[in-house]
Design a protein that fits this description.
The protein has 193 residues and is an all-alpha fold. It has ten helices and no strands. The protein is flat, with a radius of gyration of 21 Å. One of its GO terms (molecular function) is D-glucose transmembrane transporter activity.
Length: 193
């Protein structure tokens, strides 16, 4: 029944994808990243209804003034910062624990048991790459575009994955397509949602 469970997550992603265009960008993102004051106020009214949000807007303006002199760090600078080591340790622990999740799919794809640990290691590496890549492009493209693209790619990949798993008994090379699609799914998830 794992394929039903996998389809359920695809259904939830599809529902989110359908409703995403109707939500505004985050007010802090619009003001702090884009510098769009009018868009920020419009998003506040759209999210919270009619009202006076001048105090919240003023708080965001104060935050913008405080962070104006702050240097935005790139990924390598963040990795060199000792204050983030506890958070990085927790993230790496989570990434390592997630490696057990795909074993059933790999067994269903009839992969040899001897290569499953290497595939799991590859998944961990692709997760790490997608996280680093996402953190470097999120300010350039914005969350909305990354969410849209990520969910669209994930939906397409899930359809292809289900097809490849169904055909893996008939065509030997489909097993490896399944593994590649799992890597792509994880990268799409890490970059988008």
């Amino acid at each position: 029944m794992w394929n039903v469970l996998l389809s359920f997550s695809g259904l939830v992603a599809l529902i989110q994808l359908l409703f995403l265009p109707f939500f505004p960008e985050s007010p802090p993102y619009l003001l702090l990243q884009k510098g769009d004051k009018a868009g920020c106020l419009k998003a506040m009214k759209q999210l919270w209804g009619d009202g006076n949000y001048q105090s919240e807007f003023d708080d965001l303006m104060k935050e913008k003034a405080v962070t104006k002199g702050t240097k935005i760090m790139n990924v390598l600078e963040v990795l060199k910062e000792p204050s983030v080591y506890p958070q990085l340790s927790i993230m790496l622990l989570l990434l390592l624990s997630l490696q057990l999740c795909g074993l059933k799919i790999f067994q269903t794809a009839n992969l040899q048991r001897s290569i499953i640990p290497y595939v799991s290691l590859g998944i961990a590496i692709s997760e790490l790459i997608s996280i680093i890549f996402c953190s470097s492009i999120i300010d350039r493209f914005g969350r909305r575009i990354l969410l849209w693209g990520g969910y669209l790619l994930m939906a397409l990949i899930l359809v292809l994955l289900e097809t490849s798993l169904l055909l893996s008994g008939q065509f030997l090379w489909m097993r490896y397509c399944s593994v590649i699609l799992i890597f792509l799914f994880i990268i799409a998830y890490g970059i988008g949602p």
